[in-house]
Design goal:
It is elongated, with a radius of gyration of 47 Å. Strand 11, helix 19 (about 550-560) and strand 12 form a beta-alpha-beta unit. The strands form 3 sheets. The protein has a 5-stranded parallel sheet, with helices on one face. It has a 4-stranded parallel sheet with strand order 10-9-11-12. Helices cover about 50% and strands about 10% of the residues. By secondary structure, the protein is of the alpha/beta class. The protein contains 23 helices and 12 strands.
């Protein structure tokens, strides 16, 4: 095991990288399998950050087998269920920025198939591909259908051309035969007439008579044709339409008409016989050539496949096979995640990004942290919930706890009442929600700072071997509020909780008791370097309250009028970003009074003012200046009178108030 740890350390050190473990659901994305999404929010599915994937939905093996749903011995059918995925804002920036500094791993409570599909979806989004797996399948299916359509179009076209030539030849040959028959008949009739009239004429005379007889026969036929046309017009008889088709097909039609079609005949039906008539010409004109559409689809499919290939190359580069799912560690169950299952050495060079800390706290073999608390290298993030998916069933596990959700619910409800029934206002709210989502940018900044500290040029290789990511994160958290003591003149951040943790739970743990897990809010404040107090004191800094008007809040405003009463969202943002956030957006009630400078700073200012006043008095009395600077003579008498008399009636009241406040501050600091 030690050799494996050393090899992994050397491998990461050569490329100056660290390990990063990412959760999927509610950390990088929000997924749902609700079938109503496609009908209710079809317009949202056209967004580039909203994706669709099809997964087989099989009955969970963890359910009890006492009540089989499908009967004994019959396995449940694998249903194909669409999953709709909304990727978190700034995901592309997050992954592209951290890729040179971290080896990215995935640890999810979903199945292996779900994890693989989600990684593919993320990589398609990174290469700007709008085609998901289902879209590629439909596009390929459309391409194949058009290819078959084009093939049959050309087959029918060639068949029409061939049959057209054949029919033309048949019509020409039949007309020539009819002309020859008529000519022979006329000659035979004329010969018979000549024989009857004059059997003894010469050959020349017979030829002349033959012509006369033929002319007479043609005239008689013309008269007969006129009579027949008038008769057909009177009787309204229609001519039969002649078609040159397939005799076998016509015989089959007759048999089907007499005996009926066969029920079990699965053979494909042949093409209908071709008939060269006016209707066929009209159909030929109406049928369009689908070749142009096929070429367009082929280009579109080629572009989609090129992007798909890029996405798969990027997937291998980002995730490779570093994916761990619930089905891979089935003995742990849904509610436990162990870092040693992914890193047997404990993951001292790994940072974890997850929206749930309870699943990591449930592990029994964490290398750092108190028992029952998550490891120190866990970066907790705000659970991501897309507003459009609210009320829909989530995929896999539920989201983590969000203390800021309750404090911001009232603000959201107020905005909903104002914008109720206004589509444009709702769209603007969705855009603002996307802009306000900064969690991945915060986490990216934290991870960059971790990497800079670990691979700092000021550290030697031996010092770096003793350094770990949990240790760096612990120091970074302590600097958020703990660093304020040095810049604030010795004042330590003290926080009073109201309406968040019962008082008996706050008193049940102490700094020396390292065995009991702390409440989440208490742990957040203490990890950031603050001190939790149970009662209001004059030197109180913040009151983190669930609501305004409680007894603790009112007492804190009386005893410490300079403290800030804020919502839990302020503390959570400080913990999520590991920076001290602005308190103004999270203030409850009126703004507090401006806090006076601390006692040490006041003493320094007083010493500086006394020295300055002595210099000015000497200048006014002697008229000389050691710095040889020019003095405004017009302002000297006023300053001299004040300095000599020691009185200023305009500032008497202000000085009294300031002295009283200063005395209270000094007494409070001594008592503390």
């Amino acid at each position: 095991a030690k050799s494996i740890c050393y090899d992994s350390f050397q491998k990461l050190s050569r490329v100056k990288k660290l390990n990063l473990v990412l959760d999927l659901d509610h950390t990088l994305l929000h997924a749902t399998a609700d079938y109503l999404i496609k009908t209710k929010f079809a317009h949202l599915l056209q967004r580039s950050d909203v994706r669709t994937l099809i997964l087989p939905m099989i009955e969970d093996q963890e359910q009890p087998q006492s009540k089989p749903k499908y009967g004994s011995g019959i396995p449940p059918p694998p249903y194909l269920l669409p999953h709709y995925v909304k990727l978190r804002p700034h995901l592309s920036t997050f992954l592209n920025t951290l890729l040179p500094f971290y080896e990215i791993n995935v640890y999810t409570a979903g199945t292996r198939s779900y994890a693989n599909h989600i990684c593919n979806v993320i990589c398609r989004y990174l290469v700007n591909s709008m085609y998901d797996e289902e879209d590629l399948h439909l596009l390929n299916q459309k391409r194949q259908e058009l290819e078959e359509k084009v093939r049959w179009f050309h087959v029918r076209k060639r068949r029409r051309d061939v049959l057209k030539k054949v029919t033309m030849k048949k019509t020409i040959s039949t007309e020539e035969k009819e002309d020859d028959l008529k000519k022979n008949e006329k000659q035979e009739v004329a010969q018979e007439v000549i024989d009857l009239v004059d059997d003894g004429d010469h050959e020349g005379k017979s030829v002349g008579k033959e012509k006369e007889v033929i002319d007479l026969v043609e005239k008689e036929e013309a008269k007969d044709d006129k009579k027949t046309t008038t008769k057909t017009a009177d009787t309204n008889k229609k001519r039969k339409r002649v078609s040159f088709g397939d005799d076998v097909a016509s015989d089959a039609k007759k048999k089907n008409a007499i005996n009926g079609p066969k029920d079990n005949d699965d053979s494909p039906s042949p093409l209908p016989p071709f008939s060269f008539n006016k209707e066929t010409k009209e159909e030929e004109k109406e049928e369009d050539d689908p070749t142009e559409e096929l070429n367009h689809i082929r280009i579109q499919y080629k572009e989609a496949m090129d992007l798909e290939q890029k996405a798969m190359v990027l997937r291998k580069k980002i995730f490779s096979s570093r994916i761990l799912s619930r089905t891979d560690v089935g003995d742990l169950g849904r509610e436990v995640k162990s870092l040693k299952r992914m890193f047997p050495c404990g993951g001292i060079m790994a940072a974890i990004v997850d929206d749930r800390e309870d699943v990591w706290a449930n592990a029994e073999n964490n290398s750092t942290g108190r028992p029952g608390e998550p490891p120190e290298n866990l970066l907790l993030v705000k659970p991501y919930h897309w507003k459009e998916f609210s009320g829909c069933r989530d995929v896999n596990n539920a989201a983590g706890m969000d203390l800021s959700a309750s404090s911001s619910a009232s603000l959201e409800n107020g905005s909903k009442k104002k914008n109720h029934g206004e589509g444009e206002a709702n769209d603007s709210n969705n855009n603002n929600e996307e802009k306000d989502e900064q969690q991945l940018l915060w986490t990216m900044d934290i991870l960059k700072r971790i990497h800079e500290r670990y691979y700092s040029d000021n550290l030697t290789d031996d010092e770096r071997q003793t350094l770990s990511v949990p240790q760096i994160l612990k120091e970074m958290r302590r600097e958020v509020f703990g660093g304020c003591s040095s810049s604030g003149g010795g004042r330590k951040i003290k926080i009073l909780l109201s309406g968040l943790v019962p008082l008996y739970k706050q008193k049940s743990f102490g700094e020396g008791d390292q065995k009991k897990p702390r409440p989440s809010v208490v742990r957040y404040a203490e990890d950031l370097g603050a001190t939790i107090v149970s009662e209001a004191t004059p030197d109180l800094t913040y009151v983190v309250a669930a609501r305004d008007g409680t007894e603790k809040v009112l007492r804190a405003r009386r005893m410490a009028p300079h403290c800030f009463v804020v919502r839990p969202s302020w503390l959570m943002e400080c913990y999520w970003s590991i920076t001290k956030r602005d308190v103004v957006p999270h203030i409850i009630g009126p703004m507090p009074k401006q806090r006076p400078p601390p006692p040490l700073l006041l003493q320094q200012q007083e010493r500086g003012n006394i020295q300055m006043n002595q210099e000015r008095k000497s200048i006014l009395l002697t008229g000389t200046d050691s710095s040889d600077e020019e003095i405004d003579v017009g302002a000297a008498p006023d300053k001299e009178s004040i300095l000599l008399d020691g009185t200023d009636s305009s500032d008497d009241e202000d000085d009294d108030d300031f002295a009283a406040e200063l005395e209270n501050e000094i007494m409070a600091s001594r008592n503390a």
